Amino acid sequence: MATDAVGCMKILVKTGSGMVVYNKYKNGEFFGRWKDVTPDLIAEDVNDAVNWLFA
Predict the structure, then answer these.
(1) What is the per-residue pLDDT for 48?
(2) Which residue, 55, 48, 53, 8, is CA-closest to 22?
(3) How many CA atoms lie within 13 Å of 53's alpha carbon, on the beta-carbon side?
(4) Around Cβ 13, how many Cβ atoms within 10 Å?
(5) Hey, CA dihedral for 45, 51, 54, 55, is it positive or negative?
(6) Residues 28-33: contacts with CB within 8 Å, 24+ apart?
(7) What are the angstrom distances between the C-alpha of 30 and each of 27, 44, 52, 54?
(8) In this structure, are strands 41-43 and 11-13 parallel, antiparallel, or unpaired?
(9) What is the mean pLDDT of the chain?
C-alpha cells in the first residue's frame, strides 16, 4: 500500500466498496503486505473522514 510505504495517513471509509474492504480487514482476511497495514482512521463516511482530518 503506497500510503503506508511513504508514511501517509491511512483512512478506510466504510461507504461503497469500502465496506467490503472493512469487513475483510475486520475478519483478518488480508495477507502478505496488506496484512501489516493498519488504518489510522476507520470512517463511517467521507464527512467523518474530513472532520477527523481538520480536527
Answers:
(1) 98
(2) 48
(3) 13
(4) 20
(5) negative
(6) 33/1
(7) 8, 21, 26, 30
(8) parallel
(9) 91
Alpha helices in 1-55 (DSSP H): 2-5, 18-26, 46-53
Residue 22, all three cell numbers: 472493512
What size, in residues, is the chain? 55
Residue 14 near residue 49 (C-beta atoms within 8 A)? no
At residue 19, what is the residue type?
A: M
Per-residue pLDDT tens over the stretch 16-28: 999 999 999 999 9
d(CA 55, CA 48): 10
